[in-house]
Amino acid sequence: MAQLILNHLTKDFGSGRPAVADVSLTLRRQAFLALLGPSGCGKTTVLRMIAGFEQPTDGSIFYGERRLSDAERALPPEKRNMAMVFQSYALWPHMTVAENVGYPLKVRGISGAPWQKLVGDALALVKLTDFAERRPSALSGGQRQRVALARCLVTQPDVVLLDEPLANLDQHLRKAMEETFRAFHERSGATMVYVTHDQAEAMSLATDVAVMSEGRLLQVAPPAEIYARPEGRVVGGLIGRGSILRLPLAETGERQLGWPVFREALGWRDANGATGGPLADVLVRPEHVHRGTDGILMRVMSCAFEGERFSLDLALGDGQRLKAYSSVAIAEGQAVPFVIASGWRL
Ligand SMILES: Nc1ncnc2c1ncn2[C@@H]1O[C@H](COP(=O)(O)OP(=O)(O)OP(=O)(O)O)[C@@H](O)[C@H]1O
Fold first, then answer.
1. Residue 110 C-beta-side C-alpha neighbours within 13 Å
2. To pair with 274 at 20 to 30 A between CA atoms, which of 23, 141, 151, 232?
3. Cα–Cα distance between 244 and 236 in angstroms, integer?
C-alpha cells in the first residue's frame, strides 16, 4: 500500500473564497484519517478531489509515485482503485443485497464462482450473509449502510472514502457501525478518509484527525495528541467538551498550566475587574475542574443529570463560563469553591 499525498491542494469554485485552500497532507500507510470541521469548511470537496469527482484548481494529489490529479490533468474516478461510501447509501432498489454488493464486480467483468466468492466474503465481513437475497427496502438503515460498505470493499480498493456515512443512523447503530468500520479497516489494510462533523466519532475511529476551517487545514494529529494539545481556538473548541477562558497570563512559553497559574490569574481578575493584562485563551476540560476547599468561588448556573454524572455550568466572578462534572447534585445558584487542576494554553 502506498501513501496518499495531498500537495498544496486548492479548489476555487469562483465564489470569491476558495472552498479548499492550500491543503497539504501526507497520510501514513493504512491511515484512518478523520476529516473534521464545521459545515462548509471544505471536507467534502477534499474527499471529492481525492475520489476524482472534482479537479483541483491548484496543487496535486499523489498515490505513492502516481499522480492522480492536478490543475491540468485528472485520472478518472474509475481508474483510481478507490471506493466511496455516501451518507445516502445509494443502493439499487430493484437489486437484491448480493446483486448490489456484486455490481462493481459485474462492471469489471467478474462473474460465476469468483463473483460468488467475493460477494460472499464481503457480506460475511459486514455480517449480512443471511440477508443476501433481500431487497434494500426490506432492511434497516444500519443494514443498508453495511450493504454500501460491502459493495465498496468487494473491489478491494486501496483507498476508501466515507462521507458522513453514519449521519442517518441513531446513536446505538452508530456505535455498532463504528465497530464494523474498525474491523473493515483492520482486515483490508486500505487507507480510509472519513468525513464527519462529529468529533466523538472521529476520535474513536481514526488513527489521525485533521481539522479544517474555512478551507484550510488547521492541525493533523493522532486523536490523543489533538485532544491534549490542540492548536488555536477553533481546534480547541471543536475537540472535546472543553471551555475556553480568556485569562491574564504572563508569556512564559509554558502551555500546560496547573492550578497555581489559574489561582493567580483568576484571583488577579477578581481583585482587578475584567480588564487589563495580556489576555490568553486557555482550554479547560470539564474533567479537570474539581470541587476543593482551596478553590475559587464559582456560581453553579445549572446542574444537569447525565446518567453517570452531573454536568455543571459554572460562572466565574467576571461572568465567563466553565463546564465541570460532579458525582453529586449541587443546588443551582450556590457559590462553591472549585479548583482548575489543569488547562492548555491555545
Ligand atoms: N459545486 C460547487 N460549486 C460551488 N460551490 C461549492 C460547490 N461545492 C461546494 N461548494 C462550496 O464550497 C464550500 C465547501 O463545501 P464542502 O461541501 O466541501 O463543505 P463541508 O465541510 O463538506 O460541509 P458539510 O459538513 O456541510 O457537508 C462551501 O462554501 C460550499 O458552498
1. 16
2. 232
3. 8
